[in-house]
Design a protein that fits this description.
With about 230 residues, this protein is of the alpha+beta class. The protein has a single domain, classed as Thiol Ester Dehydrase, Chain A (Roll), CATH 3.10.129. About 20% of the residues lie in helices and about 40% in strands. It has helices spanning about 20-35, 120-135, 150, 165-175, and strands at about 1-5, 45, 50, 50-60, 70-80, 85-90, 95-105, 110, 140-145, 175-185, 195-200, 205-210, 215-225. The strands form 2 sheets. Strands 1, 4, 5, 6, 7, 8, 9, 10, 11, 12 and 13 form an 11-stranded antiparallel sheet that branches. Strand 7 and strand 8 form a beta hairpin. The longest helix has 16 residues, at about 20-35.
Amino acid sequence: MHYTDITIGMPHLLANGKLNLNHFVKITGDAHWRVQNKTPSELYVDSKRVYNSFLYTDINIQQHYREDDKFIIETTGEQLDDYIYCSTHKFNNDTVKMYTVGIHVEDHKVLRVDNSGTRRDIFWDKHRTEKLSANAESYYVRTYQTSYLVDFNSAGILYCANYLTFAYRYMSDLNFFKDIQEIYYLGNIKPNEKVHIGCSANNDLIMYSEDHTPIAVFKGSNIDES
């Protein structure tokens, strides 16, 4: 069990008063690391540093949070198969679940630590289905430039939480707000690449690399803020 004390302040909130998932997922992502490995910087396999690559985040936040609200996030974790580690973050009546796989990073390329283990097929089949669906045509596509120092982490790959930065920019540009509840991570990009985001026929947001390969899917419900 890992505990994180939270006092809601400006970093936790968006300009519209909604919870800033970009910041919040960084908090739960770090707790994920801490419950999995007490000292992540010391995790090596075959003399190569091991990092986490996020596959899926399930966000179930029903409560409306305001500045100065206080609570404790309780984080537990379990190994689901030979690849996937899952953490569950509970606070009040809300939960965030995060799923990762161990990776090495070589020249900004993501390489899985192990390719010979057994898989939990129900998870991988769903992930594969979302990846195939993301290749469908998108509408209202916008293009954004990434910043290496700001958007990438110290492993040299686009930080999982920062995918949300571009989703928020897209929603702001198109003047709507989506309560993001699920994120499927499908791939990564090279430093300083541009990314594209569009809206699918079933109202998901699809994020693409510079060559229009799908790298993330954001699911949730649209909120009328008028």
